[in-house]
């Protein structure tokens, strides 16, 4: 017996639960019949019965619930499933579409769906469902976490995002029923997140529809004015467009090209974006109409291109070959712009039937067109991008940071560059050699020190252009520079740089934590080497720590006090028996190269030879001040004995202020005196206090306090010098 869908959205044996008179009954019979006819074209009888059961289950679960428009709530999952049926998605995805709001809006659990319709359907429903907002501090944080969950579920199964995109499409079509502020917010997130995802998956018609709906709800007046202008232009240019269409239809057969010619109109959002980005008026946007030519094979594409260029003059610089170099979403076509009759610009796209299928349905063509030859390549690219989402997640535990990385990756790849071996890499416009290095491999990016673009050495922040040949120079001990975060464009590069810096930070903090803990143990008269592994295991069980490394990192970051950890470790241990509270505590030796775990305070700028003291600051690690720094007296924290390690060779920056008589050549004399002591001038600024006196502020590199004393002695020998003082605050720019 053939499966059938019920003829009504609501059961006939009991009346619908209508909260008030604003929700009159709505007949869904026509929608159900259309949906049933769609399913019958490609589903087997058993699968059709499962979809019918899912619909009935959803209708029963949502009984008495209504949308803002007044329609029964079940009309929404039905519309979502109908969109998926248009892509010929499988039974599991259709059932999940019909049930996608059941867990979120009713008392039905994920386990019940898994028991009734299978584990896969339940996982798809769970991937689409939102999280409980009560767990988050703000709406923005909740939304970011929702996006993160959805994108990670999509990385495991692409059907999750297809259901979500169909869900968002129907919500956008019914957005008039919600209040204006919510309407604009939903439209904005659709434009920023969902439309780019649709584009990235090759669902171009869906992407354009979401953009149009978002534009209409975000800027309703602009949308109406532009729609009216396009309608008027359509009448004015009808004759020209018709003339071009007939000319192309005659020309192609003459050149032996069998083709299907379609006219197309530029979308309102596309026109609006061009007017906004290029500061044009509507009358200046001439390429409102274009044509699409569909041929049987790739050679015919290029034959058609030659025929068109012989018919109308091409516009220089407007030709793009996306067949030889496909876009990141596997879109392929030839794009050209021509000068038509009366000087009218004409945009033309030329593609094969198979390319047209992929351009229209993207990743959904996997279900819609089973015989499409390029599907394996499309699936490979899609899988690679989805896998990159998992890589981004592993690199970032922060939800907002993860979403930021994803947004970087959602914009179309516009720049195509070559590796030294001739491989083509697609990168976002504005990408740099650092982005290129991380696109090749994370190790190449982490060890990058320089680059060559087209065989010329260029800065790493140089923006790449189409056709550039890029070669990365690496060094074994190189590491990422935090400044790279200011100009990289890909989410992968940003995530890898932050992951490396975070790991480095933790390693340095763990090293510092081990030194601080050792100091605390020696202060109790215990050799750190005497702390056994069993002592650490007992302590970790009692404090709930994950590992010894994590505890040491927390000590280095100032989140745990070393003295307290030392006492806990000694409780009940053999090493603690001989502990002495009065034992001398050894000082922590500062090298100045510890990295982010040890910071030299900017308020007093200590250098080797200065008496110093350390303060443990939560989240900052160990901050080193001079002993007479006024700031340290006001600060609260755990003070630590520190001292300079002997034999430090690295340079330290110090600021001095020199008051001189305002005479010709005095700056040259001062610079010579400084250079005589082998010191480098990093910065110099000048402030004229009066007509006779000038104040010069130097930032110098010195090795220690004795080196600074020799420089000051040389400067005092200059006759024009009135007074010299060392400045311990950071100079103002």
UniProtKB/TrEMBL annotation:
<dbReference type="InterPro" id="IPR045865">
    <property type="entry name" value="ACT-like_dom_sf"/>
</dbReference>
<protein>
    <submittedName>
        <fullName>Guanosine-3',5'-bis(Diphosphate) 3'-pyrophosphohydrolase</fullName>
    </submittedName>
</protein>
<dbReference type="InterPro" id="IPR003607">
    <property type="entry name" value="HD/PDEase_dom"/>
</dbReference>
<dbReference type="InterPro" id="IPR004095">
    <property type="entry name" value="TGS"/>
</dbReference>
<comment type="function">
    <text>In eubacteria ppGpp (guanosine 3'-diphosphate 5'-diphosphate) is a mediator of the stringent response that coordinates a variety of cellular activities in response to changes in nutritional abundance.</text>
</comment>
<feature type="domain" description="ACT">
    <location>
        <begin position="655"/>
        <end position="729"/>
    </location>
</feature>
<dbReference type="InterPro" id="IPR007685">
    <property type="entry name" value="RelA_SpoT"/>
</dbReference>
<feature type="domain" description="HD">
    <location>
        <begin position="73"/>
        <end position="172"/>
    </location>
</feature>
<dbReference type="InterPro" id="IPR002912">
    <property type="entry name" value="ACT_dom"/>
</dbReference>
<dbReference type="GO" id="GO:0015949">
    <property type="term" value="P:nucleobase-containing small molecule interconversion"/>
</dbReference>
<dbReference type="InterPro" id="IPR004811">
    <property type="entry name" value="RelA/Spo_fam"/>
</dbReference>
<dbReference type="Pfam" id="PF04607">
    <property type="entry name" value="RelA_SpoT"/>
</dbReference>
<dbReference type="InterPro" id="IPR043519">
    <property type="entry name" value="NT_sf"/>
</dbReference>
<dbReference type="InterPro" id="IPR033655">
    <property type="entry name" value="TGS_RelA/SpoT"/>
</dbReference>
<dbReference type="GO" id="GO:0008893">
    <property type="term" value="F:guanosine-3',5'-bis(diphosphate) 3'-diphosphatase activity"/>
</dbReference>
<dbReference type="GO" id="GO:0015969">
    <property type="term" value="P:guanosine tetraphosphate metabolic process"/>
</dbReference>
<dbReference type="Pfam" id="PF02824">
    <property type="entry name" value="TGS"/>
</dbReference>
<feature type="region of interest" description="Disordered">
    <location>
        <begin position="1"/>
        <end position="22"/>
    </location>
</feature>
<dbReference type="InterPro" id="IPR012676">
    <property type="entry name" value="TGS-like"/>
</dbReference>
<dbReference type="Pfam" id="PF13291">
    <property type="entry name" value="ACT_4"/>
</dbReference>
<dbReference type="InterPro" id="IPR012675">
    <property type="entry name" value="Beta-grasp_dom_sf"/>
</dbReference>
<feature type="domain" description="TGS">
    <location>
        <begin position="411"/>
        <end position="474"/>
    </location>
</feature>
<keyword id="KW-0378">Hydrolase</keyword>
<comment type="similarity">
    <text>Belongs to the relA/spoT family.</text>
</comment>
<dbReference type="GO" id="GO:0042594">
    <property type="term" value="P:response to starvation"/>
</dbReference>
<dbReference type="Pfam" id="PF13328">
    <property type="entry name" value="HD_4"/>
</dbReference>
<dbReference type="GO" id="GO:0005886">
    <property type="term" value="C:plasma membrane"/>
</dbReference>
<dbReference type="InterPro" id="IPR006674">
    <property type="entry name" value="HD_domain"/>
</dbReference>
<dbReference type="GO" id="GO:0008728">
    <property type="term" value="F:GTP diphosphokinase activity"/>
</dbReference>
């Amino acid at each position: 017996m053939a499966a059938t869908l019920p003829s009504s959205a609501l059961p006939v044996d009991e009346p619908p639960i209508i909260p008030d008179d604003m929700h009159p009954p709505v007949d869904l019979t026509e929608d159900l019949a259309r949906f049933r006819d769609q399913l019958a074209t490609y589903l087997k009888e058993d699968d059709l019965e499962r979809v019918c059961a899912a619909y009935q289950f959803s209708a029963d679960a949502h009984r008495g619930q209504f949308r803002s428009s007044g329609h029964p709530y079940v009309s929404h999952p039905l519309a979502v499933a109908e969109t998926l049926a248009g892509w010929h998605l499988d039974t599991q995805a259709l059932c999940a579409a019909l049930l996608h709001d059941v867990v979120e809006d009713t008392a039905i659990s994920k386990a019940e769906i898994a028991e009734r319709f299978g584990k896969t359907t339940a996982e798809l429903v769970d991937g689409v469902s939102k999280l409980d907002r009560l767990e988050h501090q703000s709406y923005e944080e909740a939304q970011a976490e929702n996006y993160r969950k959805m994108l990670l579920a999509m990385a495991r199964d692409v059907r999750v995002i297809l259901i979500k995109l169909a869900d968002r499409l129907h919500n956008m079509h019914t957005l008039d029923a919600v209040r204006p502020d919510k309407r604009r917010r939903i439209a904005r997130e659709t434009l920023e997140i969902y439309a780019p995802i649709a584009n990235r998956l090759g669902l171009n018609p869906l992407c354009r529809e979401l953009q149009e709906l978002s534009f209409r709800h975000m800027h309703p007046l602009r949308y109406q004015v532009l729609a009216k202008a396009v309608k008027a232009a359509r009448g004015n240019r009808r004759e020209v467009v018709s003339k071009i269409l007939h000319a192309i239809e005659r020309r192609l057969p003459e050149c032996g090209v069998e083709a299907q010619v379609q006219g197309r109109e530029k979308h309102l959002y596309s026109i609006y974006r061009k007017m906004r980005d290029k500061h044009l008026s509507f009358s200046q946007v001439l390429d409102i109409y274009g044509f699409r030519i569909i041929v049987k094979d790739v050679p015919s594409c290029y034959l058609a291109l030659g025929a068109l260029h012989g018919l109308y003059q091409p516009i220089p610089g407007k030709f793009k070959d996306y067949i030889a170099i496909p876009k990141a979403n596997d879109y392929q076509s030839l794009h050209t712009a021509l000068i038509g009759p009366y000087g009218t610009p004409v945009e033309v796209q030329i593609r094969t039937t198979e390319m047209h299928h992929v351009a229209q349905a993207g990743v959904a063509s996997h279900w819609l067109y089973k015989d499409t030859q390029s599907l394996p390549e499309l699936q490979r690219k899609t899988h690679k991008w989805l896998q990159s989402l998992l890589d981004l997640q592993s690199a970032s535990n922060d939800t907002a940071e993860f979403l930021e990385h994803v947004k970087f990756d959602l914009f179309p790849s516009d720049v195509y560059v070559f590796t030294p071996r001739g491989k083509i890499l697609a990168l976002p416009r504005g990408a740099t050699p650092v982005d290129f290095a991380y696109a090749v491999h994370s190790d190449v990016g982490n060890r990058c020190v320089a680059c060559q673009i087209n065989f010329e050495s260029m800065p790493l922040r140089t923006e790449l252009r189409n056709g550039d040949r890029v070669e990365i120079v690496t060094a074994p001990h190189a590491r990422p520079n935090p400044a790279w975060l200011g100009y990289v464009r890909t989410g992968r590069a940003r995530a890898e740089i932050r992951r490396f810096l975070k790991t480095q930070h933790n390693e340095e903090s763990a090293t510092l934590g081990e030194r601080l803990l050792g100091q605390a143990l020696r202060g109790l008269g215990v050799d750190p080497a005497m702390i056994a592994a069993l002592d650490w295991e007992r302590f970790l069980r009692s404090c709930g720590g994950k590992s010894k490394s994590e505890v040491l990192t927390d000590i280095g970051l100032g989140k745990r006090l070393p003295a307290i950890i030392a006492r806990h470790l000694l409780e009940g241990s053999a090493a603690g028996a001989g502990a002495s509270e009065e034992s001398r505590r050894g000082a922590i030796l500062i090298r100045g190269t510890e990295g982010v775990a040890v910071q030299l305070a900017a308020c007093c700028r200590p250098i080797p030879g200065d008496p110093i003291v350390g303060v443990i600051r939560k989240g900052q690690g160990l901050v080193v001040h001079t002993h007479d720094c006024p700031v340290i007296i006001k600060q609260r924290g755990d003070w630590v004995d520190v001292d300079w390690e002997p034999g430090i060779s690295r340079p330290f920056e110090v600021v001095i202020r020199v008051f001189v008589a305002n005479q010709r050549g005095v700056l040259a004399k001062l610079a010579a005196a400084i250079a005589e002591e082998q010191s480098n001038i990093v910065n110099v600024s000048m402030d004229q206090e009066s007509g006779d006196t000038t104040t010069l502020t130097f930032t110098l590199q010195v090795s220690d306090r004795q080196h600074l004393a020799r420089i000051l002695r040389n400067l005092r020998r200059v006759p024009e010098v009135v007074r010299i003082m060392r400045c311990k605050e950071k100079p103002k720019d």
